[in-house]
């Protein structure tokens, strides 16, 4: 009897282990590029209440890491691209960084479970050219050596997140997948380093960008719809964009001799604003399809990822938008930790759990004063949008249809909220009006910002965000310039 029980438990354990290896853990990216970030303690509560066991950071903010202490959440800390050159040049700089941002959080009982150090944030992105590439490998090696010196090499691994455009297939067939020619040598060096230290390859897979950049990829194919037309590659059939991109990567790795390296999908998601088909209902369909796909182990993946990180936890109103206005709207939750749609990270719940007891500024908005001469209102709106987030009123945004002067009011309010309701931030040469009547229209919500004590005021300047201003001028919005 005891022997049969032992064999049964052994079989169950083996099955569970196989499931973990096959499906991989699902975590989330937590970015903090927000004018009024949700307090770190609230975010950790949000992670825990939604059963999110792993989180990937883009820096090593002490407030964030202190909040994660004792949570038992697996953490990837990030090093910004701006530090790669100095880390490559000096092992001392690397040792100092590791001491300040890793070692100190391993001491004592209330430790942070740091698993990876992400050296750079997609430094091989094609638009960067050679800005960071020469420093990546040296920086990663110095960080790994610093971890070893701190006796942490067995617990923490240095990795380098690679971008969605680091690999490709001109024919569209995964079997022809390869790395970009300009980084092929660097990728061989990186993968040799990762293999030596038994570290995984971190990479972004982006069905959203594939859909927007490739006319042969349909929306249904991107959203895991069973009705989508399949793509064939020899004897293999691909029924969704994720599998197609992922196996393109696997073949790229095999082509340069690294067919066995573990893969972590470090970013994958679907934005909810700022572009065509970037909506909450579409994002819900995508994420439910992705989670179901990973959990059921369906599809034709050559080698499934060991971990997958959803992009992202929260919206960030100060993210760079050079890639598109949608980059500020990847969050599964809004900036204040409220769920955008029905979804769950675990089997114990069907819906997301919102952040609780969130503190907001008073219910006041800044709108255009219709009793004034508005001939200069559009220029004032451009001033506001040079500082504040106006991506929702640009083409493809959820508020792009509200027209003039509603879009002017949206711009005024964005700056007013960013400046914590300071009266002078609703002046605009006498064109602004503070109101307690919510000016939101249909699906266009005029936000009330979070009540935070550390947010900084911004003075409007037409020259601080010229790319956004150019978008305004070319967008065809009824700003009456």
UniProtKB/TrEMBL annotation:
Sorted keywords for this record are: Disulfide bond, Glycosidase, Hydrolase, Signal
Q: Where is the X8 domain?
A: 364-446
Pfam families, sorted: Glyco_hydro_17, X8
InterPro entries, per this entry? GH, Glyco_hydro_17, Glyco_hydro_17_plant, X8
- Asked if the record carries the keyword Lipid metabolism, the reply is no
Q: Where is the signal peptide?
A: 1-19
* E.C. code: 3.2.1.39
Molecular-function GO term, any one: glucan endo-1,3-beta-D-glucosidase activity
Primary enzyme class: hydrolase
Catalysed reactions listed for this entry: Hydrolysis of (1->3)-beta-D-glucosidic linkages in (1->3)-beta-D-glucans
Per the record, the similarity remark reads: Belongs to the glycosyl hydrolase 17 family.
Protein name as annotated? glucan endo-1,3-beta-D-glucosidase
């Amino acid at each position: 009897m005891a022997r049969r029980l032992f064999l049964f438990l052994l079989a169950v354990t083996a099955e569970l282990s196989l499931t973990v290896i096959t499906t991989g853990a699902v975590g989330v990216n937590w970015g903090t590029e927000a004018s009024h970030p949700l307090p770190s303690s609230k975010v950790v509560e949000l992670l825990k209440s939604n059963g999110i066991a792993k989180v990937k950071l883009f820096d090593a903010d002490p407030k964030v890491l202190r909040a994660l202490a004792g949570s038992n959440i697996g953490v990837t800390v990030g090093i910004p691209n701006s530090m790669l050159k100095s880390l490559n040049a000096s092992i001392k700089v690397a040792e100092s960084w590791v001491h300040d941002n890793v070692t100190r959080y391993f001491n004592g009982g209330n430790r942070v479970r740091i698993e990876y150090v992400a050296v750079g944030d997609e430094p091989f992105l094609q638009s960067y050219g050679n800005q960071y590439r020469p420093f990546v490998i040296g920086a990663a090696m110095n960080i790994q050596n610093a971890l070893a010196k701190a006796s942490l090499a067995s617990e923490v691994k240095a990795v380098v997140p690679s971008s969605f455009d680091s690999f490709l297939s001109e024919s569209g067939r995964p079997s022809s997948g390869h790395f970009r020619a300009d980084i092929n040598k660097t990728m061989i060096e990186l993968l040799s380093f990762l293999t030596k230290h038994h570290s995984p390859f971190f990479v972004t897979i982006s069905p959203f960008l594939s859909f927007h950049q490739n006319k042969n990829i349909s929306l249904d194919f991107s959203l895991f719809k069973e009705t989508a037309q399949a793509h064939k590659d020899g004897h293999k059939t691909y029924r969704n964009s994720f599998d197609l991109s992922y196996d393109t990567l696997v073949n790229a790795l095999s082509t340069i001799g690294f067919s066995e390296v573990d893969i972590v999908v470090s970013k994958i998601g679907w934005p909810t604003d700022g572009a065509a088909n970037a909506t909450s209902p579409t994002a819900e369909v995508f994420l439910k399809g992705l989670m179901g796909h990973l959990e059921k182990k369906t599809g034709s993946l050559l080698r499934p990822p060991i971990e997958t990180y959803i992009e992202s936890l929260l919206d960030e109103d100060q993210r760079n938008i050079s890639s598109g206005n949608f980059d500020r709207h990847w969050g599964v939750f809004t900036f204040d930790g409220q769920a955008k749609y029905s979804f769950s990270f675990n089997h114990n719940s069907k819906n997301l759990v919102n952040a609780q007891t969130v503190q907001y500024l008073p219910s006041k908005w800044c709108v255009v004063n219709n009793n004034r001469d508005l001939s200069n209102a559009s220029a004032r709106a451009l001033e506001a949008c040079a500082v504040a987030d106006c991506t929702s009123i640009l083409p493809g945004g959820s508020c792009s249809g509200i027209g003039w002067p509603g879009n002017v009011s949206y711009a005024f309010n964005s700056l007013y909220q960013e400046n914590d309701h300071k009266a002078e931030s609703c002046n605009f040469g006498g064109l602004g009006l503070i109101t307690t009547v919510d000016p939101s229209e249909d699906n266009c919500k005029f936000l009330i910002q979070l009540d935070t004590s550390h947010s900084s005021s911004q003075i409007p300047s037409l020259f601080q965000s010229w790319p956004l201003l150019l978008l305004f001028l070319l967008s065809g919005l009824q700003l009456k310039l």
